[in-house]
Amino acid sequence: MEKVSVIIDGRAFEAVKDQCVLEVAHENGVYIPSLCYNSEVASSGGSCRVCLVEAHQGGRMRLVTACNYPVRKGLEVKTDTPLVHRIRRGVLELLMARVPDSEVIREMAAAEGLSEVRFRLDEGEDDRFNCIACALCTNVCADVVGVYAIAMVNRGAEKKPATPYYKASDVCIGCGACAYACPTGAIAMEEEDGVRRIWGRDFNMVKCGVCGTPYIPEAQVDWIVKTTGKDRSFFDKCPDHR
Ligand code: SF4
To answer: How many angstroms is it from 50 CA to the middle of ligand 1?
Structure first.
């Protein structure tokens, strides 16, 4: 792996060539806010625009999203300039207009000194819950789980993830990876009496043979057994009791 030196906010750090700026910053304790990026999901990032920073290279400055901008020799990044904060406030204000109840976005906005928003989406468009349409959930389902149970539908402010025709998906395995990955907690997932409900479908959970805790949907076990050849008996016990 080729190493390069990158300057972030005046400090030099060593990084792997082509590593994204966001990861290098976070590894070295430099805070850049982000929502739609997940290092486990190759196709994630570049959507929410919260991580915009100044990238200076070859005598030029560009505003780039830190989560998908590669580190190269001679790059200098500035995360804390008046321009970065102004753009970040604008992005957060638009996100707050879209999902005014999202706590994580409110906190990010408050850190930028922003509490009020000048915009509001029309009444009657409130079925977006806390979704910012970043598509991390659909990317996780497709690229990590390999199931393709959900996709982004509609355009503009109405864009959101959904199952085909908004019907309970036959292929969803109830793993919940989409809900765990969602940066704003927008995907409803409930569990009661050994049944998980997500995307309009109920999934019976397998109980641990030792502690009796329901811990994984039967459909997920079926999927793992089918795609990996793992012995079904492996799931007789939860991770804590294997
Ligand atoms: S719960 Fe369903 S939609 Fe969500 S990641 Fe798992 S398979 Fe995909």
So the answer is: 25
Residue with tokens 């704003």: 184
144-173 pLDDT, tens digit each: 999 999 999 999 888 999 999 999 999 999
Pick the CATH number of 1-120 from 3.10.20.740, 1.10.3720.10, 3.40.50.1820, 3.30.360.10: 3.10.20.740
User: In the chain, which residues have pLDDT < 70?
Assistant: 122-128
- Judge if the beta carbon of residue 140 lies within 6 A of ligand 1: yes
pLDDT, one tens digit per residue, over 105-152 is: 999 999 999 988 887 776 555 555 789 999 999 999 999 999 999 999
Backbone angles phi, psi at 138, to 5 degrees: -70, -35
3 state SS of 31: coil
Residues 178 and 152: their CA atoms lie apart, in Å, by 13
Which residue ranges make up each domain of the chain? 1-120, 136-241
Tokens of 216: 């994984």
Ligand 1 contact via 205 beta carbon (within 6 Å): no
